[in-house]
Amino acid sequence: MKFSTKTIRLGQEPTPPYKPVMPPLYQSASFAWDDLDNPPPFDYTRAGNPTRAALEEVYAGIENAKFGLAQSTGMAAVATVCSLLQAGDHIVAPRDIYGGTFRYFQVFLKKQNIDVSYFDATRADCLAEEIKPNTKLVWLETPTNPTLKICDIRACTSIAKGAGATTALDNTFATPYLQNPLDLSCDIVMHSTTKYINGHSDVVGGALMWNDEALTAPLTLYAKSAGNTPGPFDCWLTLRGVKTLAIRMERHMQNAQAAAEFLQAHSKVERVHYPGLPSHPQHELAKRQMRGFGGMVSVEVKGGGEAAKRVAKSTKLFILGESLGGVESLVCWPPMMSHAAMSEDERAAIGIPPSLLRLSVGIEDVDDLIEDLDAALAKA
Ligand SMILES: Cc1ncc(COP(=O)(O)O)c(C=O)c1O
After folding, report:
1. What is the reported pLDDT for 350?
2. What is the pLDDT at residue 77?
3. Which residues of the chain fall short of a pLDDT of 50?
4. Disulfide check for 358: which of 55, 175, 256, 332 has CB 3.0–4.6 Å away?
5. Residue with CA closest to ligand 1 atom 6
């Protein structure tokens, strides 16, 4: 079954008695038992629910995985992966991971005596240097947020495997439509489904996908115990949203490529970060590893942080807001928004200057989007 068919059909066969084409919303916290000898397939929604099960079938299918687990948010999915670790373990992660993941590692894992080292996402050899005897998890994110660096997944997973560490990859920016890390030897894929997978900015959610059956019991037991699973209505909305992932991504990519090319030629722009531009330092690796370059573009505006803020405040179609991956275009100023959890020095060290704006290029008409960027840049 090909990608679009999976998003529309997996787990969603019309079933008797009414044979609904869209899976019903089982908005129930609890399910009745017939007797005590035969527990029902679902008994309590924190542990499992038929609407969630349909979505989990889609999640597994689109990442070519055997198993899928729906989570209440992307951060819940990060926490579930980290529950595999114990005090005294060590993680290695790229320097420019999502700010919320960085905060979780720095504040909560450190409190549990789990140490984290960071490496340059573009250099697998730097990952090798950070590995220690107690490294149990290599966390990857590619393209990175917000500088869109590309990490060589195969090179990193082979280093991690050599060290006996599990690899988990945040595939939120690329989406399973453009990149399948399990096929490149990763052990666990993680998504904030709040973004492209749901795609309509009306649900927060997360997902984990994996192949190794040995991971199933610890991951699902943690989710059931911590209660970080989503409610049925959020699953139902996401089932609806994910059906159009393939066609949305095609349009996101077309618009992002056009916006990146326009920005690169603009006199008020210092630098554009987009893996689809031949000038991107890992353009060739992105071409090899991904099936397209995604919908995120970052731009450094000439004139520093104040100029970038003026642009962010001046766009009309690009809404100034957190998040990404929805049908509508958004602009974000990382120091106060996505990367507020990092200090200015930490941001500078990973190449996020105050002049950088992150654009989530939506699927509106591209001419309107470019006109909007042009008018806002005039205020830089
Ligand atoms: C790359 C990435 N990973 C994880 C998250 C966290 O996801 P959520 O907000 O659904 O918890 C985000 C949120 O912006 C993100 O951009």
Report:
1. 86
2. 98
3. none
4. 332
5. 74
Residues 35 and 40: their CA atoms lie apart, in Å, by: 9
Q: Which of 195, 248, 309, 358 is catalytic?
A: 195
Per the CB < 8 A criterion, the answer to whether 298 and 350 are in contact is no
Give the range of the structural domain holding residue 204, as residue numbers without chain letter.
3-242
pLDDT the model gives residue 270: 97
Residues 207 and 277 reside in one and the same domain? no
**Which residue type sits at 244?**
T
CA distance 268 to 374: 10
Instruction: Please pick, among 59, 95, 96, 98, the residue that the annotation labels catalytic.
Output: 98
204 and 252 share one domain? no
Same-domain pairing of 190 and 267: no
CATH classification at residue 271: 3.90.1150.10
What is the tens place of the pLDDT at every residue in 267-280? 999 999 999 999 99
- Rounded Cα gap, residues 303 and 25, in angstroms: 51
Distance CA 373, CA 363 (A): 15
Q: What is the rounded distance in angstroms from the CA atom of residue 154 to the CA atom of residue 177?
A: 18
Among 71, 73, 75, which residue has the most ligand 1 atoms within 8 Å of its CB, making it the best to mutate? Answer: 75
Return the ∠ at Cα 20 (arms to 18 and 26), rounded to 5°.
95
| pLDDT confidence of residue 118 | 96
